[in-house]
């Protein structure tokens, strides 16, 4: 098995009745119920895309029929597979994220994986300096110097969300969730600016002040406004012959880091098999909702 990186741009997805009903048929009943409780269609589409991506990757990679894939969540909310995995892939694992306009998934045969996607956007109802001030306790002094180094506020925001993405990917990989002190992590960037569909893998992490060579990170941009970070942990015992560069934390390898492949809806459900009966009331409830929350203009 090779590394898997997939994305779906739900922000541009305007599901028809048939698409939404088919999607709802192709997930587990508890997932369908949870998605149906979202107030806004954007959140429902994001969650639906994430569940479909999960089932697709598990089904396609492990050759388990789509309708026989059984998923559950840890008490921290991290999805995991209940099915027995093949003996040759005992450490197969995956992670999903959705934010902005994308849902993404990363899956690995051996390395522990976490993924996060963030949309770079102007802060709501405040300016950039004030926004940074409210977030000052989330980043170290070194990280803030890196974030504020670009000359324009937009480039500073890109650096901010890139750092946030890295920290979230690490936390999701270890499966802790809320409560982890983000100041325990300090990221050192070598690549100054990410490129669209270009994967950088030379960022290092320091945990509690010490460089951790068991972790490396893959970063890219899905488009001009969305950055993605994939955290990868080598769970095997460290070895002097592991060809790692201690200055960057990256594996010295000739392999090209995988890129995210953006699927359309047809590709997303190409191997799907329905688990549930069609439920027209589910579509009617979805169709009555609005896309997202729109703040009232108080000026």
UniProtKB/TrEMBL annotation:
Pfam families: AASDHPPT_N, ACPS. The keyword Transferase applies. Keywords: Transferase. Residues 112-231 form the 4'-phosphopantetheinyl transferase domain. Belongs to the P-Pant transferase superfamily. AcpS family. It catalyses: apo-[ACP] + acetyl-CoA = acetyl-[ACP] + adenosine 3',5'-bisphosphate + H(+); apo-[ACP] + CoA = holo-[ACP] + adenosine 3',5'-bisphosphate + H(+). Its EC number is 2.7.8.7. InterPro entries: 4-PPantetheinyl_Trfase_dom, 4-PPantetheinyl_Trfase_dom_sf, AASDHPPT_N, P-Pant_transferase_sf. The gene is LOC100379009. It comes from the Eukaryota. Residues 12-109 form the 4'-phosphopantetheinyl transferase N-terminal domain. The keyword Transferase applies. This is L-aminoadipate-semialdehyde dehydrogenase-phosphopantetheinyl transferase. It is an enzyme of class 2 (transferase). PANTHER family: L-AMINOADIPATE-SEMIALDEHYDE DEHYDROGENASE-PHOSPHOPANTETHEINYL TRANSFERASE (PTHR12215:SF10), PHOSPHOPANTETHEINE TRANSFERASE (PTHR12215). It comes from Saccoglossus kowalevskii.
């Amino acid at each position: 098995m090779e590394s898997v990186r997939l994305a779906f741009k739900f922000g541009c997805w305007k599901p028809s009745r048939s698409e939404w009903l088919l999607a709802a048929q192709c997930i587990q009943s508890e997932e369908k119920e949870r998605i149906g409780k979202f107030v806004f269609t954007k959140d429902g589409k994001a969650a639906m895309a994430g569940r479909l991506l999960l089932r697709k990757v598990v089904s396609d990679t492990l050759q388990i029929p789509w309708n026989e894939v059984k998923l559950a969540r840890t008490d921290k909310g991290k999805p995991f597979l209940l099915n027995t995995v093949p003996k040759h892939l005992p450490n197969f694992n995956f992670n999903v994220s959705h934010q902005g306009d994308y849902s993404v998934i990363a899956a690995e045969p051996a390395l522990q994986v976490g993924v996060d996607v963030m949309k770079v956007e102007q802060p709501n109802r405040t300016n950039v300096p004030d926004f940074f001030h409210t977030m000052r306790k989330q980043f170290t002094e070194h990280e803030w110097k890196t974030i504020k180094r670009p000359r324009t506020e937009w480039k500073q925001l890109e650096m901010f969300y890139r750092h946030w993405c890295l920290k979230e990917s690490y936390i999701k990989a270890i499966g802790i969730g809320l409560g982890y002190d983000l100041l325990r992590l300090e990221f050192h960037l070598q690549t100054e600016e990410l490129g669209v569909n270009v994967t950088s893998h030379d960022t290092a992490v320091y945990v509690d002040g010490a460089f951790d060579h068991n972790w490396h990170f893959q970063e890219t941009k899905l488009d001009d406004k969305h950055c993605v970070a994939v955290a990868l942990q080598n769970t095997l015992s460290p070895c002097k012959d592991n060809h790692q560069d201690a200055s960057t934390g990256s594996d010295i390898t000739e392999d090209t880091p995988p890129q995210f492949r953006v699927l359309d809806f047809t590709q997303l459900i190409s191997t799907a098999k329905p688990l549930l009966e069609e439920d027209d009331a589910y579509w009617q409830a979805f169709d009555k909702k609005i896309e997202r929350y729109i703040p009232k203009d108080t000026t």
